[in-house]
Automatic annotation (TrEMBL):
Biological process annotations from GO: glycoprotein metabolic process
GH84 domain sequence ranges: 21-296
Organism: Dendroctonus ponderosae (Mountain pine beetle)
Stretches with biased composition (Basic and acidic residues): 496-509
Biased composition (Polar residues): 556-573
GO molecular function, one term: beta-N-acetylglucosaminidase activity
Low complexity bias spans: 515-528
EC numbers, comma separated: 3.2.1.169
SUPFAM superfamilies named in the record: (Trans)glycosidases, Acyl-CoA N-acyltransferases (Nat)
Source species, domain of life: Eukaryota
Keywords: Glycosidase, Hydrolase
Keyword Lipid metabolism among record annotations: no
Name assigned to this protein: protein O-GlcNAcase
Length: 973
């Protein structure tokens, strides 16, 4: 028996060597599916790159998983038939996949008949290859199935073999429930489930496998050989390396790596399950195609260092934090090197941005909004990370058998899991609507009237000690905000959706092809191929919408913010039309260097690109060596080499920030709006973080902090904490443990604790290249800062009431003047095209600040504004003059928990609400560097605008420190 098995495996391997190797794409992620047009574009690219297979398996598409029993309507059939034919035209094998495992009763003949009928219908459309997917389901049988089948595997094998024979033994794929080593029970070699598949499943059915983990850092020969022996056939790798449906902060633009081309003869094939955003997958698919063409004849030039092409070692860094491995000068054509493959892909990708393609609706993420569930970090053998009470650092241990308390692991996981809030809107958990990608060429339809049968259930997450803990993972997160009108953007276009058998319900609406309109409230996994478990209820085969009228309904999207949406029926679909001149676009053409930077900023799940690492390293070095600036200031010696190096590296940091600004500018000007909308939110988000880091460095350059600063700004669980980087890069943890990627790693370097809410930004609905710059206040800024204050002093809104010349600055002299005069070192401004549009100022100790004002500010103001000027003027001016002359008698805030005071204001023309958050983050970081961890702002009790403004910045009312007529709001950091 063993000899027979070995011969079959050898024969299969020989097929692979002879070119019978499946290579392509599986559309198998959660969230908004791709559109018909995008899939057809994919087929053309795949043919050009020498790939041969596409697997239709979008988890949240209407009739793939949640409603797998439903037959296709006439209109849906036309779209699916067109897709299958388009694939054939490009010599691409179209695998049609169904995921019935959520609620199928394997022993029920009616269920089997329903499954056969569904696949027969698709076969009539011209499909000749099929797949059954049993991933991400509970491995439990119903009571009825237990009476017929001895094991879960036998049930799946029985129905799969039956379907396979019924369809005439076509090309066929199976995705098992245990689809990676970490899910094999108890392990791969001894898994009864996997061994049953190997021995009982028809030999010509190919079985999919993700590797050692759901998202595997490496695919090792040993792992592939082990699963091949158990399954008695080489696996088809379902590769989640570039999947991003588990994290809305991350998109993966790095090359296919961690898989040696030497594996090709040992595999049946590889299909990549990439980013949700179709346009973001050029690099992922292009580099996989390059990899598949290497070493197909199993020939290797062993005179070349084998590690170069194998690419199976952990990519290390040099001492300066940069990637240590570069492309060799001479490289054989049949040798694969990820960085060379990336260069080739970027060169081919660049022309795509010049193609004219429209975008629909506002910018939004296609990934589902995920309820953040901390996943315990399981330490590797070489890295034991421990957390102890009262410490803020990670310690590495070389113990061969690490012992880590589950509570400590949970705490560490929570740090990772709380950095990636996508929006500051309220998330209401619940099942999301059903989506349909087969009723329009360019859009995805959603129908809120059809209930989503996939509900949240507890999923056991194993901890280190082997026990289980049930954490409820919410499968949907419905995000709703108030409707907003279009902000002046012209809209055109009208689309009517027709259903071949019934009218589209009035609750069915259109979603965009790209990040235009996303449904973040769809079925929401925490992981790719994972966490959508068995539903509490199942969809009946005959479920219909409430509206069965025969009238044609015109559909539309009326969007809200990015990251959240609310679709309104009975309006026109709209296409975004932007007013960018041809001259602007020519002057802002995207370059190879721009795309190389983009790829480095959003590289791979287990590694950051070289320029991303450089950003981390430069900021950390500048922050850690800021004492050089203090020392030089104390000695009044600015000529020493150490100081010159510090400022040279600060300038380098500024240049890198400017490069990211250019990337945003050039990307925003590109012709391909569809592609832009896929990528814009990521670039916009990380640009803001990098700009914030640069602003903080500019503040450090002035040296306004004590020598004890490192004890206040060390940071907790950052990239530079012992064991953190190693755990991230090792691949021992699934990457969703480290949420947020490089964006989050950069955020964690900013010395503001408990500040995650300050990094929750709402992406603009339409792309904008407007860049706001935050920098320390200069004496020459006073007039502009005063102007902003005077224009916004009336409840945060502009006051157009003219004042007498001698009173024109009375508001600013009262509100902001003391801060910029007495504490300019804690003052920041925001510039838009070199014009100041906002400011934030603080005094680290409000009690001492009052004393300073009484001595050095109030006398001057009393002289400038004598009492008689209060006559015949407004009540607000009278209140200001009274403040100056009765300063000693005023009751002021004296809070032990919020000792610092601050004021912040921006012109109403600043519509980007992330600007205020970054501005305040800079201010709080400067206070923290000086040993202050709480701040308050006192506002008029009638000032609802400013109250809401500070509320959005994480401030809450402090009733203990109340002052008559004032509302005191504070926050710690």
């Amino acid at each position: 028996m063993a000899e027979e098995t070995g011969s079959k495996v050898a024969a299969a391997s020989l097929d692979a060597r002879n070119g019978n190797f499946i290579c392509g794409v599986v559309e198998g992620f959660y969230g908004r599916p791709w559109t018909t047009e995008q899939r057809k574009d994919l087929f053309q690219k795949m043919k050009k790159w020498g790939m041969d297979s596409y697997v239709y398996a979008p988890k949240d598409d209407y009739k793939h998983r949640a409603y797998w029993r439903e037959l296709y309507t006439v209109e849906e059939a036309e779209h699916l038939t067109g897709l299958i034919q388009a694939a054939k035209d490009q010599n691409i094998t179209f695998y049609y996949a169904l995921s019935p495992g959520l609620d199928i009763t394997y022993s029920n003949q009616k269920e089997t008949t329903t499954l056969k009928r569904k696949l027969e219908q698709v076969a009539e459309f011209g499909c000749t290859a099929f797949a059954l997917l049993f991933d991400d389901i509970e491995p439990e049988m119903s009571e009825a199935d237990k009476e017929i089948f001895q094991t879960f595997a036998q049930a799946q094998v029985s129905i799969t073999n039956d379907i396979y024979q019924h369809l005439g033994q076509p090309k066929f794929l199976l995705c098992p429930t245990q689809y990676c080593s970490t899910r094999a029970v108890p392990n791969v070699a001894n898994s009864e489930y996997l061994n049953t598949l190997g021995s009982k499943l028809a030999q010509d059915i190919d079985i999919m496998w993700t590797g050692n983990k759901v998202i595997s850092r490496h695919l090792a020969n040993e792992n592939i050989q082990e699963i091949t022996d158990v399954l008695r056939r080489p696996p088809v790798i379902w590769d989640n390396l570039h999947a991003n449906d588990y994290d809305q902060k991350r998109v993966f633009l790095g090359p296919y790596s961690g898989r040696s081309p030497d594996l090709i003869p040992k595999l049946r094939g590889v299909v990549t399950n990439p980013n949700c955003e179709y346009g973001a997958n050029y690099i992922a698919i292009h580099t996989l195609a390059q990899w598949s063409r290497c070493n197909l004849d199993a020939q290797r030039d062993f005179s070349i260092n084998d590690s170069i092409s194998a690419d199976i070692k952990l990519e290390t860094e040099t001492e300066d934090g940069l990637s240590g491995e570069d492309v060799p000068v001479t490289l054989s054509p049949n040798i694969y090197h990820p960085k060379q493959a990336l260069r080739n892909a970027i060169k081919d990708w660049l022309p795509e941005f010049s193609k004219y393609k429209a975008a629909w609706g506002p910018i939004a993420k296609p990934q589902p909004a995920v309820a953040i569930v901390p996943v315990p970090i399981i330490p590797s053998i070489n890295t034991c990370m421990s957390l102890t009470t009262g410490t803020t650092t990670l310690t590495a241990s070389g113990a061969s058998q690490p012992v880590v308390c589950p509570n400590q692991l949970q705490a560490l996981a929570e740090v990772c899991s709380t950095v990636s809030s996508v929006t500051d809107t309220i998330m209401t958990p619940g099942p999301g609507p059903v989506m349909n990608s087969l009723v329009s060429d360019t859009k995805v339809v959603t129908n809120d009237s059809i209930p989503n049968p996939i509900a949240a259930v507890p999923i056991p997450i194993p901890l280190v000690d082997g026990r289980s803990k049930s954490i409820t993972i919410l499968e949907g997160a419905v995000i709703k905000t108030d409707k907003v009108k279009s902000n002046g953007t012209p809209i055109i276009g009208d689309t009517t959706i027709r259903d071949g058998q019934r009218a589209v319900s009035r609750d069915e609406n259109v979603m965009s092809t790209d990040p235009s309109i996303s449904n973040e409230s769809s079925l929401s996994p925490s992981e790719p191929m994972d966490c959508n478990s068995t539903p509490n209820i199942s969809p009946a085969h005959g479920n219909k919408t409430a509206d069965e009228s025969s009238d044609d309904i015109a559909m539309s999207e009326n969007s809200t913010s990015s990251g959240s949406m609310q679709i309104e029926p009975n309006e026109s679909n709209h296409m975004i039309v932007e007013t960018l001149t041809e001259k602007d676009r020519k002057e802002s053409e995207l370059t190879y260097e721009d795309l190389a930077l983009l790829c480095d900023l959003f590289y791979l799940p287990f590694e950051h690109g070289a320029q991303g690492l450089q950003l981390l390293q430069e900021f950390q070095w500048l922050k850690s060596n800021a004492h050089i600036v203090i020392s030089a200031n104390q000695r009044k010696d600015h000529s020493n080499p150490e100081l010159e190096e510090w400022f040279a590296r600060a300038e380098k940091m500024n240049e890198m920030s400017e490069a990211v600004n250019r990337l945003l500018l050039h990307m925003t000007a590109c012709n391909n709006r569809e592609l832009l909308y896929d990528l814009y939110s990521y670039i916009w988000d990380i640009r803001g973080v990098i700009s914030l880091l640069n602003s903080y460095i500019k503040w450090l350059a002035n040296g306004h902090f004590p020598s004890s600063m490192p004890s206040y700004t060390q940071g907790t669980y950052t990239w530079f904490s012992k064991g953190w980087k190693e755990a991230f890069m090792s691949g021992e943890q699934e990457p969703w443990v480290f949420r947020g990627g490089l964006t989050a790693d950069l955020q964690r370097l900013i010395p503001v604790d408990s500040g995650n809410d300050l990094f929750a930004y709402k992406v603009p609905d339409a792309p904008t290249c407007k860049v706001f710059t935050i920098r320390p206040y200069l004496g020459s800024d006073e007039a502009q800062v005063y102007d902003v204050c005077n224009r916004t002093c009336k409840d945060g809104l502009e006051d157009h009431m003219p004042l007498l010349p001698e009173l024109k600055n009375v508001y600013a002299d009262r509100l902001v003047g003391p801060y910029v005069t007495l504490h300019p070192e804690f003052s920041f401004v925001v510039e838009d095209d070199a014009v100041i549009v906002g400011y934030a100022c603080a005094a680290p100790d409000h009690r001492k600040f009052r004393i300073k004002q009484e001595i050095a500010w109030i006398p001057e103001m009393c002289e400038k504004y004598p009492v008689h000027l209060a006559q015949s003027t407004t009540s607000s001016v009278q209140e200001c003059i009274s403040h100056f002359h009765n300063f000693k008698n005023e009751v002021f805030v004296n809070s032990p928990t919020h000792p610092a005071s601050m004021i912040c204001s921006l012109l109403p023309s600043v519509l980007d609400h992330s600007v205020s958050k970054r501005l305040v983050t800079c201010l709080l970081a400067s206070l923290r560097a000086n040993g202050f961890f709480g701040v308050h702002a006192a506002i008029n009790s009638t000032d609802s605008y400013t109250h809401a403004f500070y509320g959005k910045l994480g401030f809450s009312e402090n009733t203990q420190d109340g002052v008559k007529g004032k509302i005191v709001m504070g926050r710690t950091f």
